[in-house]
């Protein structure tokens, strides 16, 4: 009975995370539908429709994650990912959204090879950190969000996310990655960084905050050897 209750509690938390992360694909879908509405060329409409369909695939992946967990199945799908394409897709998804809030996006891709991770979950992680930074920099002039991708020790993939906002509020420093930790952000749920931490740990990796004079810097480390023992996609 206790195991059943614990699983239901965890499923509830997982659903909360999925609902939280639905904001991103729904925003992207809304943007492309608006573009489709004003596009006169059939080729452009087809291009936007394809991008909308990709966001629906993203939503289906999140839905599948909940169902697999409810059945007691592993929810991580590790496969080889081409970094240049992955980060180009990230740029395409994030750039307009960030720009609409006055935030400049910079992606410094120092490694253009391949890495092994769950692509769908990595998208969720990046979008959560980007949304957190965007909200934190609401009052920042010349706001900037910088993503740096490189290799670390033992071939680990190291991704740094840095913004030039006001930094981490003192009242949540000690519980930053806990569920529902928030510091009064309008519309904030306090789930974003908890989801980020969960995804990093599922990959055998880690996420940490680095002290900086300006803004906030998060460092994600994904050790490539750790994922060799996890379920893998084709």
Structure description:
The chain has helices at 2-21, 23-38, 42-70, 83-100, 119-136, 192-202, and strands at residues 79-82, 103-109, 114-117, 143-151, 157-163, 206-210, 217-222. It has 234 residues and is α+β, with helices and mostly antiparallel strands. The protein has 2 domains: 2-70, Helix Hairpins; 79-229, Heat Shock Protein 90 (2-Layer Sandwich), CATH 3.30.565.10. The strands form 2 sheets. It has a 5-stranded mixed beta sheet with strand order 2-4-5-7-6, with helices on one face. Helix 2 (23-38) packs antiparallel against helix 3 (42-70). The longest helix is centred in the N-terminal third of the chain and has 29 residues, at 42-70.
In short:
With 234 residues, this protein is α+β, with helices and mostly antiparallel strands.
Key descriptive features of the protein:
single chain, alpha+beta, Helix Hairpins, Heat Shock Protein 90, 2 domains, two-stranded antiparallel sheet, 48% helix, globular
Query: Measured on Cα atoms, how large is the radius of gyration?
Result: 18 Å
Portion of residues within helices: 40-55%
> What portion of the residues fall into strands of 2 or more residues?
15-25%
Query: SS-based structural class?
Result: alpha+beta
**Main sheet specs:** 5 strands, mixed
Q: What is the CATH H-level superfamily of the largest domain? A: Histidine kinase-like ATPase, C-terminal domain
CATH class of the largest domain: Alpha Beta
Q: Using DSSP, what is the number of strands?
A: 7
Largest sheet: spatial strand order: 2-4-5-7-6
Q: How many helices does DSSP assign?
A: 6
- What general outline do the C-alpha atoms trace? globular
Query: Could you say how many structural domains there are in total?
Result: 2
Q: Cα distance, first to last residue?
A: 37 Å
The unreliable regions are: 179-190
Q: From N to C, what is the helix and strand string?
A: HHHEHEEHEEHEE
